[in-house]
Amino acid sequence: MNRQHGFSLLEILIAFSILALSLGILLKIFSAGVNTAGVAEEYTAAVQIAESLMAQTGIEAPLKPSEATGLENEKYHWRVSVSPFQFTAENLDVTAITAALFKIKVVVSWGEDARAAGRQVELTTLKLVNKVL
Fold first, then answer.
1. What is the pTM of this model?
2. What is the pLDDT of residues 7-51, one digit of tens each?
3. Which CATH superfamily is domain 9-130 in?
4. Which end of the chain is more exposed for a tag (fewer CB within 10 A), N or C?
């Protein structure tokens, strides 16, 4: 009738091992979530910079073929390329068109080596402007 109450040392060690593994997995999941939120914030900032650059292209100066680069917030490298858009339709009479169509491409990159292998956002649009006659 010598009956002991309580837990043995082995049971306590197993319980602590299970607890440690569970906490490790939970911390890894939360850490991945925080990292993903940070990356999403960087992409959002890059898209805002690209949209801003695209919107102001052709506002301060007339559109013409050009390329410009710069750095925003000491982190985001940007490049704006403006080039004439080439029509591909064979039956299109381009002499009758009184407007010019320009292709605007904005690339914003960031990361360790932003220009080589970092993350980047690229936006492209077309803008129509009056031809100078």
1. 0.70
2. 788 889 999 999 999 999 999 999 998 889 988 999 999 999 999
3. GSPII I/J protein-like (3.30.1300.30)
4. N
